[in-house]
């Protein structure tokens, strides 16, 4: 069910496919409605419907179908160009922002539905040239005309939307918006029942490796399934891989061991390993289902790509780092770190590895620091990032902010900046140190 929901949300084809099915149904049903009502329609309504003969109806429907398939091809081409630009200029991981864009999906659905509807209705028009009587489905042709007008208006709006969506700032905002939903979904339960650990517990010597059943990226963990499996076997299940990690089938991704540290019965062990492996969901690409650090990865990719010699766009890198800072501040307000699940009797059953603030800081800071070491604006934004995060970090949680500040200071000291630039960076470093 989770996989189906993911396909409906992120794939481009479900909504256009639904539009085609509905168009075929309408193209078959409306002409029958036309045939059944005949001439019983009031004159003031008939005046609003299509009033031409059979040849005119065929011409209208053929024109709509021919033009709409051309417009649909143009729309697909523009979408592909947008995907290529986002992939080459920003990050391949930003392609999901286009495939999940409801505006793109609705536009393609409307264009394809109008084309399909016009073709389906065209087959029912009779001009009287053959043995059949003349039949002009006035209501159906009128609906096709309305759909064609709606398609033209939707195309104009789609072009405006596409131009807006190609801007780096808009894509970064879309990623940040999706990240907030992920944080609310994954970390929203920040009450007493949400148990976080300072570190992963070391597996005992009696632990059995939990092998991944499929290769791919760790997209989600079915917590309820793992909890049931561990409770039924009176065991503890540890998943030591972070969401978004790459898994290889047949290699360890965790451990299981008996709660009483006694040997497993073979059948119990095999059943537990099977059920635990089924509770680990992998995808062919990294997703934000349970991965709170995926948005940081996207922001960092944009920043690193902008700092490459081919683009040399430090302004975009600074904007991406600003989003990193805002997202880190939001994450720092939640309980981070490994998650522990207990059964109804309060016994530890499942431990799930989750990133702490140090892990997330490493994603946001390390690569921009490496590739932007010679750019004062990037270093200044990284120093400000540490200062901003230090205001929101939980005091009881180790953050590693001081270590990153020292790395930044060492990097600044190694660069040959002008006295003015160095004085500005030193001032920002002092402000960050005072915040810490």
Descriptive notes:
- The protein is an alpha+beta fold.
- Helix content is about 60%, strand content about 10%.
- The strands form 2 sheets. Strands 1-8-9-4-6-2 form a 6-stranded mixed β-sheet, covered by helices on one side. Strands 5-3-7 form a 3-stranded antiparallel β-sheet.
- A hairpin with a 5-residue loop joins strand 8 and strand 9.
Write a brief caption for the model:
By secondary structure, the chain is α+β, with helices and mostly antiparallel strands. Helices cover 61% and strands 9% of the residues. A 6-stranded mixed β-sheet has the order 1-8-9-4-6-2, covered by helices on one side. Strands 5-3-7 form a 3-stranded antiparallel β-sheet.
Topology:
Elements: H1 2-10, H2 14-37, H3 43-46, H4 54-90, H5 96-99, H6 102-122, H7 138-165, H8 168-187, E1 195-196, E2 208-211, E3 216-221, H9 223-232, E4 235-239, E5 246-247, E6 252-258, H10 266-278, E7 280-283, H11 294-306, H12 314-332, E8 339-342, E9 348-352, H13 357-371, H14 376-392, H15 401-414, H16 419-435
Parallel strand pairs: 4-9
Antiparallel strand pairs: 1-8, 2-6, 3-5, 3-7, 4-6, 8-9
Helix pairs in contact: 2-6, 4-6, 4-7, 6-7, 8-11, 8-12, 9-10, 11-12, 11-13, 12-13, 12-14, 13-15, 14-15, 14-16, 15-16
């Amino acid at each position: 069910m989770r996989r189906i929901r993911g396909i409906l949300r992120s794939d481009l084809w479900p909504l256009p496919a639904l539009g085609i099915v509905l168009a075929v149904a309408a193209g078959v049903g409306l002409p029958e409605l036309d045939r059944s009502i005949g001439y019983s329609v009031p004159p003031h309504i008939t005046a609003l419907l299509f009033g031409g003969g059979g040849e005119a109806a065929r011409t209208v429907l053929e024109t709509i179908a021919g033009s709409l398939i051309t417009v649909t091809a143009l729309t697909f081409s523009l979408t592909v160009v947008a995907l290529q630009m986002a992939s080459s200029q920003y990050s391949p991981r930003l392609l999901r922002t286009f495939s999940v864009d409801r505006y793109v999906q609705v536009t393609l659905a409307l264009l394809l539905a109008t084309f399909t509807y016009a073709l389906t209705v065209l087959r029912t028009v009779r001009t009287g040239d053959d043995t059949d009587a003349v039949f002009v489905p006035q209501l159906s042709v009128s609906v096709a005309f309305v759909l064609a007008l709606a398609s033209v208006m939707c195309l104009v709006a789609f072009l405006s939307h596409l131009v807006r969506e190609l801007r780096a700032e808009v894509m970064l905002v879309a990623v940040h918006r999706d990240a907030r939903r992920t944080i609310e979904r994954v970390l929203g339960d920040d009450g007493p029942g949400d148990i976080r650990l300072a570190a992963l517990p070391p597996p005992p010597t009696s632990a059995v490796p939990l092998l991944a059943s499929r290769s791919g990226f760790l997209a989600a963990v079915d917590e309820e399934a793992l909890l049931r499996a561990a409770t039924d076997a009176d065991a503890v299940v540890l998943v030591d891989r972070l969401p978004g990690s790459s898994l290889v089938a047949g290699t360890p991704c965790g451990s299981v061991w008996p709660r009483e540290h006694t040997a497993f019965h073979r059948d119990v062990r095999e059943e537990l390993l099977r059920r635990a492996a089924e509770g680990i969901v992998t995808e062919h690409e990294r997703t934000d289902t349970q991965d709170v650090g995926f948005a940081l990865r996207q922001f960092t990719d944009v920043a690193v790509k902008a700092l490459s010699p081919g683009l040399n766009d430090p302004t975009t890198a600074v904007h991406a780092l600003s989003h990193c800072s805002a997202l880190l501040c939001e994450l720092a307000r939640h309980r981070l770190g490994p998650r522990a699940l207990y059964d109804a009797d309060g016994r530890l059953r499942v431990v799930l590895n989750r990133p702490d603030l140090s892990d997330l800081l490493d994603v946001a800071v390390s690569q921009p620091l490496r590739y932007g070491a010679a750019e004062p604006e990037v270093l200044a934004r990284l120093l400000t990032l540490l200062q901003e995060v230090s205001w929101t970090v939980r005091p009881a949680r180790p953050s590693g902010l001081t270590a990153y500040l020292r790395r930044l200071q060492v990097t600044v000291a190694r660069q040959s900046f002008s006295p003015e630039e160095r004085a500005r960076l030193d001032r920002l470093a002092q402000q960050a140190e005072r915040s810490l």
